[in-house]
Amino acid sequence: MARVFLDTNFFIDLVERRKETNLPQFKNYQLFVSPLSFHILAYIYRYKFPNTKFTDLMGLFTIIPLTQTVLEKGSLGPTGDFEDNLQLHSAVEGDCELFLTSDKKLLTMNYFGTTKITNSLLIR
Do residues 115 and 5 lie in contact, with contact meaning Cβ atoms separated by under 8 Å? Predict the structure, then answer.
């Protein structure tokens, strides 16, 4: 089962059904996210707590811990955007094969370490 990290933009599009992508399409993948993605989701959509939807979502994803090591590595790059760096380093911490994003700048990187950066599960 492929290990797939969802960048925050992809995660939010998926869980809020903002695009054609939906969770059943990922049934053969192990999905990883940063805890930052949950924070950003709750903030943008102004979730009120306790929140059953939010709790249920947490059970569908493997959440990579936001550790001091990830913070330190994120502060060093590879981009000028700290949040992007944390996402990339979280994917590496999770030993993810794919990093799904719709961020055009990140897509130009193609890889971060051995993690393929893409906007689709269909690798060309």
Answer: yes
- Yes or no: say if 5 and 33 are a contact pair by the CB < 8 Å rule: yes
Q: Are 11 and 23 in contact (CB under 8 A)?
A: no
Cite the beta strand spans of the chain per DSSP E.
2-6, 29-33, 62-63, 98-100, 111-112, 115-118
User: For 52-107, how does the pLDDT look when each residue is reduced to its tens digit (9 = 90+)?
Assistant: 999 999 999 999 999 999 999 999 999 999 999 999 999 999 999 999 999 999 99
The DSSP secondary-structure symbol of 45 reads T
So where are the chain's domains? 2-118
Contacts of 108 (CB under 8 A, 6+ apart): none
State the amino acid at position 18 in one-letter form.
R
Architecture label for domain 2-118: 3-Layer(aba) Sandwich (3.40)
If one counts every other C-beta atom within 10 angstroms of the C-beta of residue 68, the result is: 7
Read off the tokens for 94. 């999770």
pTM flag (> 0.85): yes
